[in-house]
Write a structure and sequence with these properties.
This protein is an alpha+beta fold. It has eight helices and ten strands. Among the domains are: 156 residues, no CATH class; 58 residues, no CATH class. It is 25% helix and 14% strand. β3 and β4 form a beta hairpin.
């Protein structure tokens, strides 16, 4: 896959040639001499330069062809008995499709030697749009190719098998190609390479390790059925072993919960404890720079909330273990309003009965 600039044309043959050359470089040289390679593309790749490059590299091509007025005239001039039944993907005869070869009715002198044109017609599937020039309600598709097989139904079926490319592109969009995250072209090229690495890992995992439904599943199904299923990694004897879940195990929730899904009822609000207000005795008028004495604060506790019992005894300055010696310097001199004579008094009061811890200065 090649990231092209936004102003690149659909029929730019240089980009198509570059993709073909890079694809051939991935094939071993000894295999190129023993296999036949077919290059398939839609109408965007049906250019003379691309077809000439395929012929120089000994490659076969099969492109989509634009339905010009010359091609439409040749289709209408084809006799009815020249149309033969088309084939489905398994090689069985299709009931709603016919093919015909119009090589002798179209001028192919500008195309490589041996080019042929095959046209398929079929009734439109539901949702398909018909053009004004479609004849008798049929939908037509022309295919130029240089393959030498005499059965034109086989050639047309082989060209339609390229539809799996559209499936791969859809898988890549689900893997990260839907939106390029950067503004710089070079960073988006790196992003494209990462998407291609993920693409290769998924395809080779399906080809080598999976079977049944998962062998052909898309990345979205693989993500919920395999990649997001937790396994257990156990180590024993310096060896790690990965123990996947048993066969048939599926995650409990394979898709996000919708808005209309059943939700658990909200939890009831926990009752909040009643608020406790404090009143400070003394004068409250004017500015008082003195620190209020918490020992003289009275708390107004609601009647329904009983006060906490005092679990520890009240210690006073008479206890020798709690008496702090007086320092010689005046760094922690006692104030006149302390009334403790240079000694510190420790009292334990209930936590709910005070608004702030005792920070009295010594």
């Amino acid at each position: 896959m090649l990231l092209r600039p936004g102003n690149a044309g659909a029929n730019t043959a240089a980009d198509h040639v570059m993709v073909i050359d890079r694809s051939l470089a991935q094939i071993p040289t000894n295999s190129l001499e023993r296999i036949t390679i077919l290059v398939r593309a839609d109408t965007a790749g049906a250019t003379h330069a691309t077809a000439d490059h395929c012929q120089r590299c000994d490659l076969r091509f099969s492109f989509g062809y634009e339905l010009t007025d010359t091609v439409r005239t040749a289709i209408l001039q084809a006799p009815e008995d020249a149309w033969i039944a088309a084939l489905d993907q398994h090689g069985s005869v299709r009931e709603n499709g016919q093919v015909v070869e119009l090589t002798d009715r179209i001028d192919l002198s500008t195309w490589p030697r041996g080019s042929r044109v095959i046209v398929r017609r079929e009734p439109p599937h539901p949702g398909a749009q018909l053009s004004f020039t479609d004849h008798n309600g049929y939908r037509f598709q022309a295919i130029p190719t240089d393959q030498t097989d005499p059965d034109i139904a086989v050639l047309e079926r082989r060209h339609r098998q390229r539809a799996r490319v559209e499936d791969r592109i859809r898988d890549d969009k689900d893997t990260g190609l839907a939106k390029l995250p950067f503004k710089q072209f070079a960073l988006n090229e790196v992003w494209l390479e990462i998407v291609m690495l993920a693409h290769d890992l998924i395809v080779w995992t399906q080809a080598l390790c999976l079977n049944g439904e998962l062998a052909t599943a898309e990345p979205k199904r693989l993500r919920y059925r395999l990649f997001q299923v937790a396994a257990r990694l156990a180590f024993s004897g310096r060896r790690g072993k990965l123990h996947p879940p048993p066969p048939g195990h599926r995650p409990t929730r394979s898709s996000p919960r919708s808005r209309n899904s059943e939700r658990s009822p909200p939890r009831a609000a926990e009752p909040q404890p009643p608020a406790i207000t404090f009143e400070q005795t003394g004068s409250t008028s004017g500015r008082d720079h003195r620190r209020p004495d918490p020992l003289h604060n009275t708390a107004r506790v609601p009647a329904e909330t009983p006060p906490r019992p005092i679990t520890r005894p009240i210690h006073s300055a008479s206890s020798p273990a709690l008496t702090k010696p007086r320092r010689a310097d005046n760094a922690h001199a006692t104030t006149a309003r302390s009334g403790l004579g240079g000694q510190q008094e420790f009292r334990h009061r209930p936590r709910d009965a005070c608004s702030r811890p005792d920070r009295r200065r010594a």
